[in-house]
Write a structure and sequence with these properties.
Elements: H1 8-12, H2 14-19, H3 31-41, E1 48-52, E2 65-66, E3 76-77, E4 81-84, E5 95-103, E6 117-121, E7 133-136, E8 141-143, E9 146-149, E10 159-160, E11 171-173, H4 181-189, E12 194-198, E13 202-208, E14 212-213, E15 224-225, H5 228-238, E16 242-249, H6 253-266, E17 269-273, H7 284-291, E18 292-298, E19 301-302, E20 306-312, E21 326-330, H8 334-352, E22 362-366, E23 378-388, E24 391-396, H9 405-409, E25 413-417, E26 429-434
Parallel strand pairs: 5-6, 13-16, 13-17, 14-15, 17-21, 19-23
Antiparallel strand pairs: 1-12, 2-11, 3-10, 4-6, 4-7, 5-9, 8-9, 18-20, 20-21, 22-26, 23-24, 23-25, 25-26
Helix pairs in contact: 3-8, 5-8, 6-7
The structure holds adenosine monophosphate and magnesium ion (MG).
Magnesium ion binds near residues 209, 275, 281 and 332.
Length: about 450
C-alpha cells in the first residue's frame, strides 16, 4: 500500500507529530502506539454543567470537591450500648455506674457524663460530653438506674470519630472522578444536592454500506441489518457521551462528504463504521484526506486491521478556537467495530471528559485451552472469565470470526494477546479486559 498524499494542513499538523514517533508506521501501526497517538490529541473539553445528584450518575466530576463539613459531624456510637468515661473502667473489677438518660440517633443527650455516671446510647447517636467510650449493651447488666460494667473494657472503643470519614476542608473527591453510586452517596453525605460535572462529548456516528438495512425493514437478498449503530449508540451512552445518530450513509462520496461536513459542525468526535478497508466502495479515507488530516489507517490488530484515525478541519464559518472533531473510521465487521471502540475510541472519549482512569479493569488469568497466535500483531478474543473448581480461568467464547457478533454477546471479557506473543499453551496466563461491572 502506498502512503497517502497528505495535504498542506496535514503536513503542518498532526501527521508531523505522529511521524516524529519512531514506532510510527501508518500501514500497520501497533495498537499501543495508536492508542498513545490518539490520546495525544484527545484533550479534555471545555465546559461544565451543574446537575442535581439524581441526574449525575456516570458523569465526571469537574473540580476537586472540598468538604464543607466533618463527616460524621460528631463523635458517635458505633454500637448500641452505654456511653461512659474511660477513667471509670477497671482492669481488675466491674464498675457500677448511674444511668442518667439516653442519647438516640437524631436526639442527643443534652447533659454531660460525670464520674460514676453513664448514658444509654444507640448506634449513630452523638456521644455526650464527658464520655469517651461506648461499652456494648451485650456485656452490661442493668438494674434500675444502675449499669454493671464488667472488668477489662477498653477505653475509647466502639466510637466513630468526627471527621473520620471526611474532614472539613479536605478534598473528598478529585476532579476527573466518574460518579458511581458510591461517589453520589459521598457528595450527599457532605450535604450537597448539586455537583459540577464535565459536559458530555458530542459524538456523531454513522454506518456506511449499500448493503445495510435498518432493523424493522423487511429482509432483502444481499442485504444485512445495520447492527453497528445499535452497538455504537449503546457504547457511547456507557462512555458518557451524547450520541448524534447520522444514520446509514450509502457508499457514495457525496453522501459521505455531507455526513462528515454535518459532523464537523455538531460534534467533538465522529465515528464511522465500514468503508475503511481497501476496496472499490471505500471512500472514507480519501474523503478524510480532503476534510481534515489522517494519522493512520491500518493497525497491527485482529480484529480491527482497517481503522482510520484523524481530525476534521474546523468548519470555516466557525470563528471559535475549537479544534476540529476527532475522526475514528472503524471497520465494518461488527466485532471489529466493538473491539476497536473499546481499545482505542473509549479511552479518548473518557480523556475528553477529563477522566484519569481511561481503561476498563484488567487482570491476568490462565487460559483453559491452547490459542493460535501470530507474532507481529495484537489479537483480541472474546472470552469468558469464570471460576472452575475454585480457580479463575478464561476461555474463548467459541468461533471468533469478526462478523460473529453473538461471540461478543456471550463474552464477559476480552482476551488480549500482545503484539510479540506467539501460540499460547493451555494454562498460560493472558491479559483479560473486563467488560462488565456493577458499580
Ligand atoms: P466494510 O468495513 O465496509 O468492508 O465491511 C466489512 C463487513 O462488515 C461486511 O461484511 C459488511 O457487510 C459488514 N458491515 C459493515 N457495516 C455494518 C453494519 N453497520 N452492521 C453490520 N454489518 C456491517
Ligand atoms: Mg462497506
Amino acid at each position: 500500500m502506498s502512503a497517502p498524499k497528505p495535504g498542506p494542513a496535514a503536513t503542518a499538523g498532526i501527521l508531523r507529530v505522529a511521524t516524529r514517533n519512531a514506532a510510527y508506521n501508518a500501514d500497520s501501526l501497533r495498537v499501543d502506539t495508536a492508542r498513545a497517538l490518539i490520546l495525544s490529541l484527545a484533550a479534555c473539553l471545555e465546559g461544565t454543567e451543574l446537575l442535581p445528584l439524581s441526574s449525575a450518575l456516570g458523569r465526571v466530576l469537574a473540580a476537586d470537591l472540598v468538604s464543607p463539613i466533618d463527616v460524621p459531624a460528631h463523635d458517635n456510637a458505633a454500637m448500641d450500648g452505654f456511653a461512659v468515661r474511660g477513667a471509670d473502667l477497671r482492669e481488675d473489677a466491674p464498675s457500677r455506674l448511674r444511668v442518667l438518660g439516653a442519647s438516640l440517633a437524631g436526639r442527643p443527650y443534652a447533659g454531660s457524663v460525670g464520674a460514676g455516671q453513664c448514658v444509654r446510647i444507640m448506634t449513630g447517636a452523638t456521644l455526650p460530653a464527658g464520655a469517651d467510650t461506648v461499652v456494648v449493651q451485650e456485656v452490661v447488666s442493668v438494674q434500675g438506674d444502675r449499669a454493671g460494667i464488667p472488668a477489662g473494657q477498653q477505653p475509647g472503643s466502639n466510637l466513630r470519630r468526627a471527621g473520620e470519614d471526611v474532614k472539613a476542608g479536605a478534598v473528598a473527591l478529585t476532579a476527573g472522578t466518574p460518579l458511581r453510586p458510591a461517589e453520589l452517596g459521598v457528595i450527599a453525605s457532605l450535604g450537597l444536592d448539586r455537583v459540577e460535572v464535565r459536559r458530555r462529548p458530542r459524538v456523531a456516528y454513522f454506518s456506511t454500506g449499500d448493503e445495510l438495512l435498518k432493523p424493522g425493514e423487511s429482509p432483502a437478498p444481499g442485504r444485512v441489518y445495520d447492527s453497528n449503530r445499535a452497538t455504537l449508540a449503546a457504547m457511547l451512552a456507557r462512555a458518557g457521551c451524547d450520541g448524534i445518530d447520522l444514520g446509514v450513509v450509502p457508499d457514495d462520496p457525496m453522501a459521505l462528504e455531507q455526513a462528515l461536513a454535518r459532523a464537523a459542525l455538531e460534534a467533538d468526535a465522529v465515528i464511522s463504521s465500514g468503508g475503511v478497508s481497501v476496496g472499490d466502495a471505500d471512500y472514507i479515507r480519501p474523503l478524510m484526506q480532503r476534510a481534515g488530516e489522517v494519522l493512520f489507517w491500518k493497525l497491527a490488530l485482529r480484529p480491527g486491521r482497517p481503522f482510520a484515525f484523524g481530525r476534521l478541519n474546523p468548519p470555516p464559518a466557525d470563528g471559535s478556537e475549537r479544534p476540529g472533531a476527532l475522526f475514528f473510521g472503524l471497520p465494518g465487521n461488527p466485532v471489529a467495530t466493538m473491539v476497536t471502540f473499546y481499545l482505542l475510541v473509549r479511552p479518548a472519549l473518557l480523556a475528553m471528559q477529563g477522566r484519569a482512569d481511561l481503561d476498563p479493569p484488567r487482570t491476568r488469568a490462565p487460559v483453559r485451552h491452547a490459542l493460535a497466535k501470530k507474532a507481529g500483531r495484537t489479537e483480541v478474543l472474546r472470552g469468558v472469565l469464570e471460576a472452575s473448581d475454585g480457580k479463575w480461568q478464561v476461555r474463548a467464547t467459541g468461533a471468533q470470526g469478526s462478523g460473529l457478533l453473538s461471540s461478543m454477546a456471550k463474552a464477559n471479557c476480552l482476551v488480549v494477546l500482545e503484539h510479540e506473543r506467539c501460540d499460547v499453551a493451555a494454562g498460560e496466563s493472558v491479559d483479560v479486559i473486563m467488560l462488565d461491572g456493577i458499580a
